[in-house]
Amino acid sequence: MNPEELRKLVTQPESEVLEFKVRLPDIMLLATIISAFANTNGGRLIIGVRGNGSIVGLDNLGHARLQIEQVLKIISPSIKVETETINIDGKSVLVVSVPKGDQSPYLAAGRVFQRVNDRIIPITSKVLYTDITKRANSLDDLQTEVKQLSMTIETLNHELIVARNWKTKLIDMIIGGIIGALISLLISLSSGL
Fold it and tell me: ∠ at Cα 78 (102, 60), nearest 5°?
């Protein structure tokens, strides 16, 4: 992306595929943003820009890139993002491009989020079910989806063991229950294929 493309991009409002941050968010918010983009349609996080599109720049790009690497380690399954530094008017802006994931749901510390317009909300079982049925065109695809969900549940179980906060455990158990219900639905659908 060149400076002119960035100038045009920041004139757009935040949306399902675009979010601005003045400074680097904390690790949990950053993981939530990235996983929500991956669970929805992908998107771009632009750091060093106000919500109104004014460019303020980012001071410590090295630290920002390291923090993004750390964040990617707590998203499961793993997702690759592209980062790009754009220099504009003597200011550095970091653009994080997140692809739409092909292994959703992506969890950020045991939680599953999606983007709706410019907001991040918890993903619903209906959305998960719809995504899976779109991807599962055959019994083999369905088995692959069940395997992916099983791995997700395994990840949740591991995080539950590690977690010490009862609120986090409760949320994770609810998400695990939703995923378990989806697996049951998939198994019943597979018998109809």
Answer: 120
